[in-house]
Specification:
Belongs to the binding-protein-dependent transport system permease family. Pfam families: BPD_transp_1. Its main location: membrane. One of its GO terms (biological process) is transmembrane transport. Residues 69-281 form the ABC transmembrane type-1 domain. This protein is mostly helical. The chain has a single domain (59-288), classed as Orthogonal Bundle (MetI-like fold). Helix content is 74%, strand content 0%. It contains 13 helices and no strands. It has helices spanning 2-36, 54-60, 63-95, 101-113, 116-127, 133-139, 152-180, 184-192, 197-208, 210-225, 229-234, 246-256, 260-285. The two termini are 31 Å apart.
């Protein structure tokens, strides 16, 4: 007991900088956001006043918000599973004994280190009607020019492809680290028992990388809800809000239209959604994850 008490003060002092930074840049702003959402935005000579839950009631009748919420749902449902599958597949490929796997790792990881502004501009060239790389390739098969970012039917899908291309290489690193921790004796034993590639993956590899999958799942969902930079550069939420996501709508409302109270209410809704998803993941999925 004495040993613990003598080490309590040094341990607390070492944790203090991290606690202060976390409170100053995470917890305090979150509380301020909840409070701001209860007040109207002060404009000119009109001061801010308490309006309670009116902002949240307005959200229910806001077609732009409902569209952004629906787009974000589609965005997450498309990017998260695709990112997990592609990153795991790339990790399994570069962890196998193939020629040029070092070059393959570099190629897969390169999109991750590129700035998102550069990535958006690269893909803007790919999606340029008639002259872009994508139309050049589809033109070889007789297809005409397509305005990928200018049509409601294709704009969100085009943005989703960019997000998957950017994030898959990053999550590949975590899966690669998890695969290297799997004892090769387990794979050899499963092979000797007659298990094929699919059985080895389903019975051995997938359960052992489950903790990494849970980590990737949580982070991929968070990334899907905080995506704003490349959407702003490529489409600015258009055409007709076809690519408007929640965080971009928060930015547009708070900084373009200067309605900070309404933007705070949208932020609170986003925080609640992320909290519910995170709690659900750890409550439901953590029980099925084997850490040993």
């Amino acid at each position: 007991m004495t040993f613990r008490r003598t080490h309590l003060l040094p341990a607390s002092l070492m944790l203090l900088p991290a606690v202060v930074l976390l409170a100053a840049f995470t917890h305090v702003p979150a509380v301020q956001t909840f409070v701001t959402a209860l007040y109207s935005t002060a404009k000119g000579a009109r001061p801010s006043k308490f309006i309670g839950l009116d902002h949240y009631l307005w959200l229910l009748d806001d077609p732009a918000f409902l569209k952004a919420l629906w787009n974000n749902l589609i965005f997450a449902l498309c990017t998260v599973p695709a990112t997990i599958l592609i990153s795991l597949g790339m990790a399994m490929l570069v962890s196998s004994k193939i020629r040029g796997r070092g070059l393959a790792r570099l190629a897969f990881f390169t999109p991750t280190v590129l700035p998102m502004i550069a990535v958006a501009n690269i893909w803007l060239f790919f999606y340029t009607p008639s002259y872009g790389l994508l139309d050049q390739l589809t033109g070889l098969f007789g297809f005409g020019a397509t305005n990928w970012l200018g049509q409601q039917e294709t704009a969100l899908g085009a943005v989703i492809v960019v997000a998957i291309w950017k994030e898959a290489g990053f999550f590949m690193i975590f899966y690669l680290a998890a695969l290297t921790q799997i004892p090769p004796q387990l794979i050899e034993a499963a092979t000797l028992e007659g298990a094929g590639p699919w059985s080895r993956f389903r019975r051995v590899i997938w359960p052992l990388v489950a903790p990494t999958t849970l980590f990737v799942l949580v982070n991929a969902i968070i990334n899907a809800c905080r995506m704003v930079d490349h959407v702003m550069i490529m489409t600015r939420g258009g055409p007709d809000n076809a690519t408007m996501l929640l965080l971009l709508y928060v930015y547009e409302t708070g900084f373009r239209f200067w309605d900070t109270g309404y933007a705070a209410a949208i932020s609170v809704v986003l925080l609640i959604i992320l909290a519910l998803v995170g709690i659900g993941q750890f409550v439901l999925l953590d029980r099925k994850v084997h850490y040993r």
